[in-house]
Design a protein that fits this description.
The chain folds into two domains: 106 residues, Immunoglobulin-like; 178 residues, C8orf32 fold. A hairpin with a 5-residue loop joins strand 4 and strand 5. It is 22% helix and 38% strand. The protein is α+β, with helices and mostly antiparallel strands. Helix 5 runs antiparallel to helix 7. It has a four-stranded antiparallel β-sheet with strand order 3-6-1-14, with no helix packed on it.
């Protein structure tokens, strides 16, 4: 499936911003089942230069700075992304390796454990305690396939939690999400990762996009799509397998991968430092258009 991807971010400031340093993480990754072409960035006001970098996790980032007073900042990125079904077998062929066997593999293979360790430990946005572990206890059984256990966890989150936009922020603790049973894809992904790591397995945060479909008989509204988040779990003999706890599906053609890391704090779409004061407003419009 081929898509035209459009992501527009607009900041309006109450007082002029004299200096801004920004870092974008919006370029879709090139993978065995995903290609990204014609990626373009338009920033207004126009920076003197945009510097492309590759971060620790292999994600493409773009740094820019503005040094003239401005009260509005617009970042527009576009790309042509193609997702293919081929080479996605590990996402759709359930592994039979059990939790006990997977854990033993990590213990006995030192090089594997070192490679996975950062995805097994607490990270800035993913920490857990007894309540998190207890929530997922019935999903993880030592003699059950790890793949099936993760699917059970995603199904539990999908069934027991309500998707409520703007109910949480990027700083809302996972245990608060667990207590209220409300949140968005970022919260559900962080919760799933915390549960999986609490049982000794490696899980990472995946940032990207999901093509949304309008209600039957209704036209799709411009800017109605959104950034999305899901998880990836390392399963021995299969590698990294993706799961979407928000929608209780295994990601496929409609999921576009932008970046991955330990949690959201590693891969925010746009982060920056401003030299100013006063309030600001943020609007984001995303379109994932089949072509």
């Amino acid at each position: 499936m081929k898509y035209k991807l459009v992501h527009k971010t607009r900041y309006e400031y109450g007082q002029a911003v004299n200096t801004y340093h920004g870092l974008l993480c919006l370029m879709p990754r090139t993978l065995a089942n995903q290609s990204c072409n014609n990626f373009n960035i338009q920033i207004t006001p126009n920076p003197s230069q945009i510097v492309e970098r590759t971060d620790f996790y292999g994600n493409k980032t773009h740094y820019f700075s503005l040094h003239a007073p401005h009260k509005e900042l617009t970042v527009l990125t576009t790309a042509i992304v193609e997702r293919t079904v081929e080479d996605m077998g590990s996402l759709f062929m359930p592994s039979e390796i059990t939790c006990a066997a997977a854990r033993q593999r990590q213990v006995s293979d030192r090089s594997l454990k070192i490679a996975l360790l950062e995805y097994m430990l607490p990270s800035p946005s993913v920490k857990w305690g007894q309540k998190i572990t207890a929530f997922a206890q019935d999903c993880f059984q030592e003699n059950m396939p790890l793949y099936e256990c993760v699917r059970n966890l995603c199904r539990k989150i999908y069934t027991e939690f309500d998707f409520v936009p703007d109910f949480t922020t990027v700083n809302t603790p996972i245990e608060e999400v667990l207590a209220t049973k409300k949140g968005v894809c970022q919260d559900f992904s962080h919760l799933a990762i915390a549960c999986i790591r609490s049982f000794g397995f490696a899980a990472r945060y995946v940032s990207g996009y999901l093509e949304t479909l309008p209600p039957p008989g209704k036209p799709k509204l411009q800017g109605s799509d959104a950034s999305h988040a899901w998880i990836s779990v390392f399963i021995p003999d299969y590698g990294w397998c993706d799961f979407d706890p928000t929608n209780n599906v295994v990601p496929g053609e409609r999921h576009i991968v932008t970046a991955w890391g330990r949690d959201y704090s590693d891969v925010p779409p746009l982060k920056g430092i401003i030299f100013s004061y006063g309030k600001h407003t943020l609007t984001v419009e995303v379109d994932v258009i089949p072509v």
